[in-house]
């Protein structure tokens, strides 16, 4: 078993609602499994509407006192939470590997990344500035302030079990909101452990609750509630659209961080070594299961062979295995369904004439492990250019001109991340400005960090997380006109 003794105290099998650990009223539970071994690690409550409404009510009750604290007081609590998360980085990382599968080193990296949002928003809490505007008459003053939106609800996915939570909870708490989180049923343990540490750090009862259980029921309890003023969701476009529609009758604020389909373009003037490394960074993190992973790779024809060779050298060095084993860089995919999608995309690419130059099939380890895969001579109408593969597959597609590459990049309903490698200054400006995406990496494959606004356009959603902009999602402007 991978359940090491040091992890037991971080495994919570109850929900944290209003500062109390509790089971589902029905007594029902959901099993949490290790995707590497299929071993059942724990059971979490299968809560429904009643428990969710209880958490929402508690968040509403806790709101007045929390929002009245000074920004500095709330920042102190967040800083203590940040410190506790970092003190327990090793155990939290291992817990994440246990339920999600990513290698321990990568999981520890995500814990530090998740903690960086807590630290960032603890700092930004004190900088939620307003403004004053000259009045229309001599005695008039126009004052604009920021107030917390109120009770918030968040629904998060399994691919980043820690960071997707802190990115929403930290800014909410920083500005004086209270929040109820429903984590993905695949990875609730990291969420519950984070909530336990928040409680230890001094987050008051009801300010941050975690409810596990049936996604649809809990989602409906959130969207139908008059008390919930904002919903923040990270996940699929289909579910995001459902939540948006369901939030319409009560006119909630919404932030949606949805699917991506990132283009990655390598131009003939690029530093090919750097581009190959950037592609590895962007593509294979979390075994290809991130919404900003390069999904379709366009390579200028004159350098396609040279680039492919450099890429293959690096792909050969990737090491597939159990995330707890030393040197492993690619863990299992989250589920059998995920493996089937990858297989479908590869089969479709082959039908379009693409050649498998590396991998292309399930890994000999069995389970949900998949070989890192490189396909060459792809076409711009393959399935994997239209939807997220969410697996370790690099489809290389040749192109001739800059205009053609930009056309391919923008021929997608999605617009989250995009990457390109080039040296020509004019080309860098033209492509960075021409590409339809919320985030563009130029000569880098890593763009996510707490200091910058993360988010997408088109079917990739709306709203931004991180940066000082991440606070705005949780505040309302109030304008006061004083005539004295
Ligand atoms: P993914 O492909 O990442 O699983 P989902 O959108 O299905 O994408 O899941 C993201 C989050 O949304 C998870 O917490 C999941 O439980 C939740 N979810 C799934 N379906 C619904 C729904 N109908 N209403 C509310 N939340 C949902």
TrEMBL record:
- Going by the record, the broad EC class of this enzyme is oxidoreductase
The entry lists its GO molecular-function terms as: succinate-semialdehyde dehydrogenase (NAD+) activity
Q: Which positions fall inside the Aldehyde dehydrogenase domain? A: 21-480
EC numbers, comma separated: 1.2.1.16
GO biological process, alphabetically ordered: gamma-aminobutyric acid catabolic process
Going by the UniProt record, its keywords in alphabetical order are: Oxidoreductase
Positions annotated as active site in the UniProt record? 257
Give the family this protein belongs to, as stated in its UniProt record.
Answer: Belongs to the aldehyde dehydrogenase family.
Q: Name the chain's protein.
A: Succinate-semialdehyde dehydrogenase (NADP(+))
Species of origin reads: Aliidiomarina haloalkalitolerans
């Amino acid at each position: 078993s991978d359940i090491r003794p040091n992890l037991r105290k971080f495994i919570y099998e109850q929900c944290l609602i209003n500062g109390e650990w509790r089971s589902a009223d029905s007594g029902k539970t959901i099993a949490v499994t290790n995707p590497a071994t299929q071993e059942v690690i724990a059971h979490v409550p299968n809560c429904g509407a009643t428990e969710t409404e209880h958490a929402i009510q508690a968040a509403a009750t806790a709101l007045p006192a929390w929002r009245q604290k000074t920004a500095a007081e709330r920042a102190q609590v967040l800083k203590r939470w940040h410190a506790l998360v970092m003190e327990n980085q090793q155990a939290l990382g291992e817990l994440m590997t246990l339920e999600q599968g990513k290698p321990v080193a990568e999981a520890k990296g995500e814990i530090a990344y998740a903690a960086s949002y807590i630290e960032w928003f603890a700092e930004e809490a004190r900088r939620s500035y307003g403004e004053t505007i000259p009045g229309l008459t001599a005695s008039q003053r126009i004052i604009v302030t920021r107030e917390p939106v109120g009770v918030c609800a968040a629904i998060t996915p399994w691919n980043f079990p820690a960071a997707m939570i802190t990115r929403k909870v930290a800014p909410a708490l920083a500005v004086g909101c209270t929040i109820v989180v429903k984590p993905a049923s695949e990875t609730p343990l990291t969420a519950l452990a984070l909530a336990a540490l928040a409680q230890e750090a001094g987050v008051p009862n009801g300010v941050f609750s975690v409810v596990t259980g049936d996604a649809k029921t809990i989602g409906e309890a959130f969207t139908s509630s008059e008390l919930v003023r904002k919903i923040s969701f990270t996940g699929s476009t289909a579910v995001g659209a459902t939540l948006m529609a369901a939030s319409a009758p009560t006119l909630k604020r919404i932030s949606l961080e949805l699917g991506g389909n990132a283009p990655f373009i390598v131009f003939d003037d690029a530093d090919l070594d750097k581009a190959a490394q950037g592609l590895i960074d962007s593509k294979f993190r979390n075994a290809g299961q991130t919404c900003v992973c390069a999904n379709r790779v366009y390579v200028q024809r004159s350098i396609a062979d040279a680039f492919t060779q450099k890429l293959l050298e690096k792909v050969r060095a990737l090491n597939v295995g159990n995330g707890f084993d030393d040197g492993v860089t690619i863990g299992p995919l989250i589920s059998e369904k995920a493996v089937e999608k990858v297989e479908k995309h590869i089969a479709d690419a082959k039908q379009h004439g693409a050649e498998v130059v590396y991998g292309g099939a399930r890994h000999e380890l069995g389970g949900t492990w998949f070989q890192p895969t490189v396909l060459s001579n792809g076409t711009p109408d393959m399935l994997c250019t239209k939807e997220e593969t969410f697996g370790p597959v690099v489809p290389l597609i040749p192109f001739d001109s800059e205009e053609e590459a930009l056309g391919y990049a923008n021929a997608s309903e999605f617009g989250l991340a995009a990457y390109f490698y080039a040296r020509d200054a004019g080309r860098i400006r033209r492509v960075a400005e021409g590409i339809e995406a919320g985030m563009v990496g130029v000569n880098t494959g890593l763009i996510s960090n707490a200091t910058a606004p993360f988010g997408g356009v088109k079917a990739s959603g709306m709203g931004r997380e991180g940066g000082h902009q991440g606070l705005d999602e949780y505040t309302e402007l109030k304008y006061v006109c004083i005539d004295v």
